[in-house]
Amino acid sequence: MDLLNFVGVFAFAVSGGLVGVRRRFDIFGILVLALVTALGGGVVRDLLLGITPPSNLTNIPFLATAVVAGLITFRFSGSLDRVRRLILLADAAGLGAFAVAATLLAIRTGHPGVEAVLIGTITAIGGGIIRDMLAGTVPSVLTQDIYAAPALLGSLGTDLCVRFGLYNTLTLWLLVAFVFGMRVLALRFHWQAPKPRRLTRDEPDPPRPS
């Protein structure tokens, strides 16, 4: 599971750093986004599991991995179009790695079933939400093509594999690949969750809160 966490930290740090590059942040801003994207979801996970202080904040290898990923991103970033594609791919990789790793940790700390699935999903999407809010954009999970659903299904698949004795290294990476692939396909084909229909001119606006 350590390798899985390192993959997630690195991928999400790259994703956060690339958002900073796209928003024209300086190197400090890029490193901040890399760190909070890579470690934010894990901090939320540990707080939900009652692990204090959060392990991500005391794990020097994780911190170093996030910083190195941010520096690499700063040094080798390309054109804006290329950066956007890299953000989405790195984000999809982190989504899969963290969904599976966080679900496994929840199960191992005595929170199987629905708890594990929810913790896995929240961990996977948490870093991206914090990243987007700091960058001044609406979080991807609220606006873009299907985002949370791949993480939810990956977490559910992890819990079921453990429950029925199917968990091993191969199934672990297959689940990560499934989440990654589903997210990439959602981006490619613009799969979206149902949205409310737009108001027509004849329909009144919703009432304002008093």
TrEMBL record:
<dbReference type="Pfam" id="PF03458">
    <property type="entry name" value="Gly_transporter"/>
</dbReference>
<feature type="transmembrane region" description="Helical">
    <location>
        <begin position="86"/>
        <end position="107"/>
    </location>
</feature>
<feature type="domain" description="Glycine transporter">
    <location>
        <begin position="89"/>
        <end position="157"/>
    </location>
</feature>
<feature type="transmembrane region" description="Helical">
    <location>
        <begin position="28"/>
        <end position="51"/>
    </location>
</feature>
<dbReference type="GO" id="GO:0005886">
    <property type="term" value="C:plasma membrane"/>
</dbReference>
<keyword id="KW-0472">Membrane</keyword>
<comment type="similarity">
    <text>Belongs to the UPF0126 family.</text>
</comment>
<keyword id="KW-1003">Cell membrane</keyword>
<feature type="transmembrane region" description="Helical">
    <location>
        <begin position="6"/>
        <end position="21"/>
    </location>
</feature>
<dbReference type="InterPro" id="IPR005115">
    <property type="entry name" value="Gly_transporter"/>
</dbReference>
<feature type="transmembrane region" description="Helical">
    <location>
        <begin position="57"/>
        <end position="74"/>
    </location>
</feature>
<feature type="domain" description="Glycine transporter">
    <location>
        <begin position="3"/>
        <end position="74"/>
    </location>
</feature>
<feature type="transmembrane region" description="Helical">
    <location>
        <begin position="172"/>
        <end position="191"/>
    </location>
</feature>
<keyword id="KW-1133">Transmembrane helix</keyword>
<protein>
    <submittedName>
        <fullName>Uncharacterized domain UPF0126</fullName>
    </submittedName>
</protein>
<keyword id="KW-0812">Transmembrane</keyword>
